[in-house]
Amino acid sequence: MKILYYIILAVWYVFSLLPMRIHYVISDLLFWLLYKLVGYRRDVVRKNLKESFPEKSEEELRRIERGFYHFFCDYLVETVKLMTISQEEMKKRIVFKNAELVDEIMGSGQSVALYLGHYCNWEWVSSIPLWLNPNAWCGQVYHPLENKEFDKLFLQIRKRMGANSIAMQDTLREVVKHKRENRPIIIGYISDQKPHWVNIHHWVDFLHHDTPVLTGTERIVRKMDHAVMYLDIQRVRRGYYEAEFKLVTREPQKLKDYELTDIYFGMLEKSIRRAPEFWLWSHDRWKRTRAEFNERFEVIDGKVIAKDHPDNKPAPPKKPWYKF
Fold this sequence. Notes:
The protein is of the alpha/beta class. It is built from eleven helices and eleven strands. Strands 1-9-8-2-5-3-4 form a seven-stranded mixed beta sheet.
């Protein structure tokens, strides 16, 4: 398997050395292949768009659909480029606004939780350290890939600009460690994924869907009293982005349960409606429904338990001591 890793690494590295204009030529070819020829997840994309924008005409929906596939192919080649792009060029291609507020908050000793979504080029967000105080500890939560070779490869490119990758299951442990060391940190949470059934504790109205959402970020933020910000990203033109840090609150413990999660999804929806083609529509985001959840699960003492779970069934009667 190590041989496979080094082969992929070599191919990725060589392709990443190509000028951006060549990458976008490749992207145009990928668009024709994925959208026109293969129709990659086109049924999912169309269903998601139609249900999310019932007010839009078929013509408008097709325009967004084509725009999404064009952007998605750009995202792929831009991610490849991340392996060798210089810090100077990266700072030209994604500009972070209001970074001084992040430095001010962290300078006061308070850590920052940064909400963002799968919107515009989320991989390039790993360049945040280039815009903050050089001593700032920057982290990004990620879901480890099943393929260890690809996981190792992505970890390598994500750390090039100074960010630290944190496996999702290690997030709380990492946060607590820095708190004990009195070190303020900033961690990015991509929180628009589809939660596992047992992690569904809250639903929001998101893009005309009754949507189960992840709430782990909110629980960590409230427990650790982190300042909360939202990263509002816009694509200025092909290959260029602007990302603005927007303060949500510095006192998360004063908010009601799940209020922070509701605010995040409201801000994300506003970003998506501004330019829908830049969100990840190929993800089967609304596969899990409340009706199926209620049929298969129940909540006991705050825990989601399957209705056929052995812990949820009465214990069998004990046999009398004289029967075998």
